[in-house]
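If you are new to this repository, start here. Below is one unmodified record pulled from the training split, so you can see the exact layout before writing a loader.
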Amino acid sequence: MTTQSNTPAGWYPDPQGASQLLRWWDGAQWTDHTTANQQGAPGRQVPAQAGAAAAAPAQAVAEQAAFAAPQQAAPADPAKVQRQVQQQAGITPTAQGGGTLFTEPVLVVNQKAKLIELTNEYKVMDQGGNQLGSVTQVDQSALKKVARFVSSLDQFMTHTLEIRDVHGQPQLRLTRPRKFMKSRVVVERPDGQPVGEIVQQNVFGKINFAMMANGQQVGAIKAENWRAWNFSIVDHTDNEVARITKTWEGLAKTMFTTADNYVLQIHFQLPEPLLSLVVATALTVDTALKQDSRGLG
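And here is the target side for that same chain:
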């Protein structure tokens, strides 16, 4: 599918005629990376070549760019993400999902590396490196940032994060109220509709969380060691439905930055509200446990 072109890399309507998909053009050829065209933007299709896969002449790609929706962020290095998933997390490649935060079987969660973490920021990708969304901390005052920089008092304050899709639209809102010993995270829809809560059950030993919805426990998150690096996620029958694996980001980053990288593997399609709570869990665990000791104090 290689062709000569000066067209910049980016997401364009699928040249094979799938209007519901955007396909990644790497600047020289079409790749296998696709994502859902959630805005349904119209785009001119590239005619398929007889007996061969569709090519992408520069003029056709340029025409598509004029009609395409706002381009999504460029994917991370696919080889790096694949190593993170397959070698570091030990996950066998699986079939791609629907191209969204709630339809992909594997979510790669990478935190932006900083020397001092003042605002939590994460990128969420699929197993091929295509960005599906992001997570950012919101409603954080200047006073909170100062407290986070000079001390560990930040762990006792309220934290709010938004999970956003690739277009920047909020999908879930996570609020961890101020705490003393145990964390509790409230999960809501963007309109304030409650999804459930993730409640820390113990302080010492292997940390466990209960996932609650409508006053009933629908699942649990169980740390597999006392350092709380890897977690098994189970449903109300104690059957494992997903797994979180922390991936090694290198000695330098581990010692001197705040980067935390995780892979969330969902074993099969889950019903709501369990699905939303599981997706939120990959980010909640880090906020509830890992960020508590950040800062200089």
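Two things worth knowing about this chain: The chain has a mean pLDDT of 74. The first helix runs from residue 58 to 67.
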